[in-house]
Amino acid sequence: MSTILIAGGTGLLGNRLSVLLKERGHEVLHLSRHADPKAAFQTLTWDPAKGVIDESAIARADAVINLAGAGIADARWTTARKQLIIDSRVQSAYTLLKALKHVGKAEVYLSAAAVGYYGDSGDQLVDETAPPGKGFLPESCVAWEKAIQGVAASGLRTVGFRIGIVLSAQGGALEKMLLPLKFGVNTYFGNGSQWYSWIHIDDVCGLFMSAIENKAMKGIYNAVAPNPVTNHQFATTLGKAWGGPSLLLPAPTFALRLAMGEMADVVLTGQRVSAKKALATGFAFQFPELEVALTDVLKRKI
Fold this sequence. Notes:
Blueprint: E1 3-7, H1 12-23, E2 27-32, E3 42-47, E4 52-53, H2 55-60, E5 63-66, H3 79-103, E6 108-114, E7 125-126, H4 136-152, E8 157-163, E9 165-167, H5 172-181, E10 185-189, E11 195-196, E12 198-200, H6 201-213, E13 219-223, E14 229-230, H7 231-242, E15 247-251, H8 253-260, H9 265-268, E16 272-273, H10 276-280, H11 290-300
């Protein structure tokens, strides 16, 4: 049994990963700005904005997982919000790195990253060797990965996952897409031709768990299912998995830009991302096909 420390453990991915790690017999600790004695997992405190952390958490950890960061689509992209998105990712990595150098015994550092790194890559299938795209999403991802590389430079085995759209009925992008379906309306964005690279929440958790155990894994990996789809295909498949009556309608680009500003890039741009490198590690996706993946998360409500 290993002790796994998760920063951002109370978020969508962190919560599910914590449950699955516990089922495998691991001890799971969380880092949070506020200690919660009633939490399901022991919580130790930190404040990455101030570079402050309870070093006893780091001293106990065999593996450190960093999922911390302000939500990309939680608020309009003002100048201040953009800076917070970047700072929350960079500061968390460097706070953990400082503590790891001081008291750490961890054998591996795992970090979330995002396929937004590739920008709007059109129909091109991109892998981990592709350069970053243009715009705020790639800019924030480049800064994020620079911090991940800073940890790797310390000599600690480091793995970063460029995560696609995480499929979960409990939160994230899919939960928002399900809202209009409850009123009989299904939506695609713009002309719907942008590629969406997605992954079932249990598969992305599986990749993190595999990286803990597989000591040959290091560097950057795309955390996406092997079969990306266009946004229109995604919406159509979601309607089938939902099972109820729904009318498929477009959300026009101009309306999205008016409502969301630059943040509309989150839904209007896309990346067709390769899973080849992850597959080459021997990892087997439980849910490589979209309809089966969507049906599963809706049925199990995970």
